[in-house]
Amino acid sequence: MLSRKTSNITYRKTLIRLSRNSSGTAILHGETIQTLGQVAAILLQTIKEIIARVKVHSQWPATSDRMTQAFDATKKAGKRALKHDDPAQFHVWRKRAKRLLYLLQLTQTAPCKRTARLLERVDKLQEKLGDYHDSVVVQDHLQKKTPDKATPLLVRHSVNLLKKRKRHLREDVRKIAKQLNRSNPQRAPKR
Predict the structure, then answer these.
(1) Do 103 and 73 touch, CB atoms closer than 8 A?
(2) For 3-24, what is each residue's pLDDT tens digit?
(3) What is the C-alpha to C-alpha distance for residues 128 and 146, in angstroms, rounded to an integer?
(4) φ, ψ of residue 146 in degrees (nearest 5)
(5) Residue 24: which domain range?
(6) Is residue 188 one of the residues assigned to a domain?
(7) pLDDT digits over 21-51, tens only?
């Protein structure tokens, strides 16, 4: 059946030989092994062709392409945020990290150790960036509108504590970013 569907004459002959062998026609043992090897090569080549055609004709990038894009976007946003030390850039970084985290969680149902570490680091990164963003929002709120029963001294003390917390969180995300920059989801083995 497959032999009729293929346009390649060499593939057709190989598949016919295999079909005859499996239906009881006597073929030497060495020839059978050689034929099976040729069929395996045909199947591998066919799979490669299918993958190539899907990539060319697909509107959506492959999972690995989206993963690479998300990973690169996260790294780029991190570099920008750390360079400018701007809270808005840290928020953008968090959104990029969250996208990467969701992609990792969706595509890695049973991750290997390396991917599990990457997942853990990205999760930790976006969590720390979320804490940083929360600190920025609370600090801005305190500085713009002092709560009714709060003294200026209490507000100043709270703002100073928030600044210290933000500084520690920036140090934490810098460390995580260094670890992530050494990672690469494309090199992680697939499971």
Answers:
(1) no
(2) 455 566 776 676 666 666 655 5
(3) 26
(4) -75, 130
(5) 2-57
(6) no
(7) 655 544 555 666 676 777 778 888 888 887 7
Q: Look at residues 91, 115, 90 and name the one whose alpha carbon lies nearest to residue 191.
A: 115
97 and 136 housed in the same domain: yes
Is 161 a member of any domain?
A: yes
Question: What distance lies between CA 138 and its chain's CA centroid?
Answer: 32
Decide: residue 53, CB within 10 A, 0-12 exposed, 13-18 middle, 19+ buried.
exposed
Contacts for 80-87: CB closer than 8 Å, 24+ residues apart: 82/170, 82/173, 82/174, 82/177, 85/170, 87/132, 87/133, 87/136
Report how far residue 144's alpha carbon sits from residue 136's, in angstroms, rounded to the nearest whole number.
12
Write the single-letter amino acid at 129. L
Confidence (pTM): 0.62
Nearest-angstrom CA–CA distance, 175 and 167: 13
Q: At what angle do helices 63-84 and 87-107 cross, to 10 degrees?
A: 160
Statement to judge: residues 46 and 79 lie in one domain: no
Q: How far, in Å, CA of 77 to CA of 151, rounded? A: 38
Two structure tokens written together for 171: 């140090």
CA pair distance 169, 82, nearest whole angstrom: 12
Residues 100 and 159 in one domain: yes
- 7 with 78, same domain: the answer is no
Shared domain for 53 and 76, answered yes or no, is no
